[in-house]
Amino acid sequence: MAMYEKILVPLDGSEPSNHALEHALSIAEKYKSKVTLLAVVPRVVLPVFPDEGFGTAPVTAAKDMARYQDKMKEIYENVLKDAREEVSKEHPGIELETVLKEGRPSATIVETAEEGEIDLIVMGSRGVGGITGWILGSTSRRVVDSCTKPILIVK
Ligand SMILES: Nc1ncnc2c1ncn2[C@@H]1O[C@H](COP(=O)(O)OP(=O)(O)OP(=O)(O)O)[C@@H](O)[C@H]1O
Ligand SMILES: [Mg+2]
């Protein structure tokens, strides 16, 4: 039986995650692995003051938030679409699945890996956030902390 039958690649459109995809594809070529590309649309939380509740300002804000959420979904859909096109062009032999979910990226990545009988996660060290000088972003750090699966972190 192959060592890596199913590889999970979480994508956020960042350069490190694209590098991760390249590594995953070269492993997949070697081991004839199935590859799952996962993008997680982070959920926006509406800030509401406990003593003010939903006044008119928060209602307007809620509309903007909904618009923002839709836009985010579109962006992550495109990340998957672009990656899919690239993979089918460059690696037509690789069996590919794309999954779009909504939620907290780290928890959703871990959940998807644990549920999907994933043998290897290949992800970027950093993502589109990138405001601190840490080597790992909060998503990759949380996944490394809490997932039982083997993980390859790519810079
Ligand atoms: N929303 C997401 N959907 C899928 N994969 C993601 C998502 N966010 C991050 N990842 C994966 O996690 C890797 C590391 O990103 P991470 O979010 O940890 O770094 P960051 O964005 O620089 O930091 P932070 O989010 O803490 O500001 C990415 O390269 C990608 O593989
Ligand atoms: Mg991030």
Structural overview:
- The chain is α/β, with parallel strands linked by helices and 155 residues long.
- It has one domain: Rossmann fold (3-Layer(aba) Sandwich).
- It is 46% helix and 19% strand.
- It has 4 helices and 5 strands; from the N terminus they run βαβαβαβαβ.
- The chain has helices at residues 15-31, 56-90, 105-115, 138-146, and strands spanning 6-10, 34-41, 96-102, 120-124, 151-154.
- It has a 5-stranded parallel β-sheet, sandwiched between helices.
- Helix 3 (105-115) packs parallel to helix 4 (138-146).
- The longest helix is centred in the middle third of the chain and has 35 residues, at 56-90.
- The two termini are 30 Å apart.
- The mean pLDDT is 92.
- It binds adenosine-5'-triphosphate and magnesium ion.
- Residues 12, 127-129, 137, 139 line the site of magnesium ion.
Explain briefly what this protein structure is:
The chain has 155 residues and is of the alpha/beta class. 46% of the residues lie in helices and 19% in strands.
Estimate the strand proportion. 15-25%
- The number of distinct helices, counting runs of at least 4 residues, comes to 4
Overall 3D form: elongated
Q: Hetero groups bound?
A: adenosine-5'-triphosphate, magnesium ion
How many angstroms does the end-to-end distance come to? 30 Å
Q: List the uncertain runs.
A: none
Largest sheet: 5 strands, parallel
Strand element count: 5
Helix content: 40-55%
**CATH-level-4 superfamily name:** HUPs
